[in-house]
Amino acid sequence: MPDKIHLENILFLDIETVPEKSSFDQLDDITKELWAHKSQYQRKDETTPEEFYERAGIWAEFGKIICISVGYFTFQGDTRNFRITTFHGEENKLLLDFKNLLDEHFNHTKHVLCAHNGKEFDFPYIARRMIIHGIALPEKLDLFGKKPWEIPHLDTMELWKFGDYKHYTSLKLMAHVLGIPSPKEDIDGSMVRVVYYQQNDLKRIITYCELDVLTTAQVYLRLRNQAILKDDEVKKVAK
After folding, report:
1. Is 152 in contact with 111 (CB distance < 8 Å)?
2. Which residues pair with 236 in a beta bridge?
3. Could you read off the pLDDT of 37-83 as tens digits, one per residue?
4. How far apart are CA 7 and CA 160, in angstroms?
5. 214 with 207: CB under 8 angstroms?
6. With contact defined as beta carbons under 8 Å apart, do 220 and 2 qualify?
7. Sheet order of strands, 79-88 included
8. In the Cβ-directed half-sphere of 84, how many Cα atoms lie within 13 Å?
9. Is there a contact between 72 and 51 (Cβ–Cβ < 8 Å)?
10. If DSSP codes are grouped into helix, strand and coil, which group holds residue 13?
11. If we measure between CA atoms, which residue out of 89, 70, 68, 66 comes closest to residue 19?
């Protein structure tokens, strides 16, 4: 049960991804062919691989991470705070910075990672991109040989399923039905590629990513039947 885990032992996270190249024509011929094959089952017959490339950020083999936002609880007596920070910049560097955070501060058995749909997207995506960059996986992402109950991952969407494997619920919908105030987001996931490549506004994407981390933490609190965070409990920490 989620209430068996101490809040300060959970690292909440969210990632934002985009296609690795800004346009399909920047790919080499082999990658173009592999992309056409990879995407053929998702594309409609009338949609070409080039037209579908705007969605390439969904796949770790054809996309890249542009930011990883994390949040964690701190307690001093009865005072509760939630601190949020973001790793961004060149993918190799932000992955190394994130790995260092895990290795230095979230490397004990008691520590777990939490994301919405994290088991299907965020956790494997980060691990795959680390491998692609030749970065040794931190213990929290290296699942080889682990039994299911040994995997240190929480997923708010999975917790909401209650055993229903067919059920998908967006973070926004969960927040709404659980009475969590909607954050003032000015973009959604479908806009990240355009904001990154065409508007060159990473700061705007970081704000969106951090709001999702906060919302994930709020949803997790509601799943534990605990009071959600107030505005003055949330602290932004500059890197």
Report:
1. yes
2. 84
3. 999 988 877 899 999 999 999 999 999 999 999 999 999 988 999 99
4. 18
5. no
6. yes
7. 153-155, 112-115, 10-19, 63-76, 79-88, 234-236
8. 24
9. no
10. strand
11. 66
**For residue 96, pLDDT beyond 80:** yes
DSSP code, position 90: S
SS3 content of the chain, % helix, strand, coil (to 5): 45, 20, 35
H-state helical runs in the chain? 29-39, 49-52, 91-105, 122-132, 156-161, 171-177, 192-197, 202-223
CB 133 within 8 A of CB 126: no
Q: Residue 98 contacts by C-beta under 8 Å, 6 or more apart in sequence?
A: 68, 70, 87, 126
Eight-state DSSP code of residue 172: H
pLDDT of residue 137: 97
